[in-house]
Specification:
Layout: E1 8-10, E2 17-22, E3 28-33, E4 37-42, E5 48-53, E6 59-64, E7 70-75, E8 79-84, E9 90-95, E10 102-107, E11 113-118, E12 122-127, E13 133-138, E14 144-149, E15 155-160, E16 164-169, E17 175-180, E18 186-191, E19 197-202, E20 207-211, E21 217-221, E22 228-233, E23 239-244, E24 249-253, E25 259-263, E26 270-275, E27 281-286, E28 291-295, E29 301-305, E30 312-317, E31 323-328, E32 332-337, E33 343-348, E34 353-358, E35 364-369, E36 374-378
Antiparallel strand pairs: 1-36, 2-3, 3-4, 4-5, 6-7, 7-8, 8-9, 10-11, 11-12, 12-13, 14-15, 15-16, 16-17, 18-19, 19-20, 20-21, 22-23, 23-24, 24-25, 26-27, 27-28, 28-29, 30-31, 31-32, 32-33, 34-35, 35-36
Length: 382
């Protein structure tokens, strides 16, 4: 990204790359694709070290076990599969969401179980070692759209197209609480670090703050004139920032529900929001082809990053907080200086970029495009 040079392009998938995950040591990356396979790549050499075949439809999600020795995948073939990372062997297939899509997967903190959400309206808890479906969580009336574990790993919260959130006891499968209040589909959920509250965003143009213990709708945040598309919590969990199809961002006081500030400036829908490491600034991406850096306290648009020629869909901050990477439908990745707005480098591909991630080493960038390729680039001297 420093020079714009494509150091390595990894070709091998024959359809779109849907997700990527880095191994714990940062030396390899797993990609999953609509071509029904997973692939293990060596970041340094670009070699496709292993291909995992077994799914009969698109592979949509991937997660590594805590010890880094196994990987679990979710597919449109209605199954999850557990693979041995070193041999490529399919050690276990998890079947249970019959004739429906697996929409989300997440691992428990101890790495021994996995939770899946599905268009069959259920969540399922699986034992990674035996492949047994230990528990099915039934209660939603429509697709499960999101799942998140409480910090203690004892409960799971789900959001659904049925306009509700549900809190489940992971041990018993009991539906402990239903959070009913949104008038349209719940699109996202985020838990506060203390696990006492959850904030949800919805197509009904609102955000809601819920008490996990009582299920009480403690606060509804009104102000957006269109669907809420993104939400993030400040490091101290006292404030939330939201993005919307109404082209604005809003800063909310979680304690009072006050709409403290509206950030005007984008000319099209806001697609993503991310907080800087110190929590003093927020960066937004938009379908107006720009990124914007905002002062959290004043709402001032401190900087606009212009250079993309089509919608920006993803942003990622470097670990040192000094640069930001953007991925766009214009077939490019761009590296920007966060404080000056300078475009440091551009990498041009042959297809729109859909996702990007930064490895734990802080210098390796992985990006997937719509043509089925995974690109690996290395930050140098930045």
């Amino acid at each position: 990204l420093q020079t714009g040079q494509n150091e390595r392009t990894f070709q091998g998938h024959s359809d779109s790359v849907n997700a990527v995950a880095l191994t714990i040591d940062g030396k390899q990356v797993i990609s999953v694709s609509s071509d029904k396979t997973l692939k293990l790549w060596n970041l340094q050499t670009g070699k496709n070290e292993r291909t995992f075949q077994g799914h009969s439809d698109s592979v949509n999600a991937v997660a590594l076990t805590i010890d880094g020795k196994q990987v679990i995948s979710g597919s449109s073939d209605k199954t999850l599969k557990l693979w041995n990372l070193q041999t490529g062997k399919n050690e276990r297939t998890f079947k249970g969401h019959s004739n429906y899509l697996v929409t989300a997967v997440t691992l428990t903190p101890d790495g021994k179980q996995v939770i899946s959400g599905s268009s069959d309206k259920t969540l399922k808890l699986w034992n990674l070692q035996t492949g047994k479906n230990e528990r099915t969580f039934k209660g939603h009336r429509l697709w499960v759209t999101a799942v998140a574990l409480t910090p203690n790993g004892k409960q799971v919260i789900s959001g659904s197209l049925d306009r509700t959130l549900k809190l489940w006891n992971l041990e018993t499968g009991e539906d402990e609480r239903t959070f009913d209040g949104h008038s349209n589909s719940v699109t996202a959920v985020a838990l506060t670090p203390d696990g006492k509250q959850v904030i949800s965003g919805s197509w009904d143009r609102t955000l809601k703050l819920w008490n996990l213990e009582t299920g009480e709708d403690e606060r509804t945040f009104h102000g957006h004139n269109n669907s809420v598309t993104a939400v993030a919590l400040t490091p101290d969990s006292k404030q939330a920032i939201s993005g919307s199809s109404d082209k604005t961002l809003k800063l909310w006081n979680l304690e009072t529900g006050e709409d403290k500030r509206t950030f005007h400036g984008h000319n099209d829908r806001v697609t993503a929001v991310a907080l800087t490491i110190d929590g003093k600034q927020v960066i937004s991406a938009s379908s107006d082809n720009t990124l914007k850096l905002w002062n959290f306290q004043t709402g001032k648009n401190e900087r606009t990053f212009k250079g993309h020629s089509d919608s920006v869909y993803a942003v990622a901050l470097t670990p040192n907080g000094k640069q930001v990477i953007s991925a766009s439908w214009d077939n490019t990745l761009k590296l920007w200086n966060l404080q000056t707005g300078e475009e440091i480098a551009t990498f041009s591909g042959e297809a729109p970029f859909l996702c990007c991630a930064i490895a734990a080493d802080g210098v390796t960038i992985v990006a997937g495009d719509s043509s089925g390729r995974v690109h690996f680039l290395r930050l140098e001297n930045v």
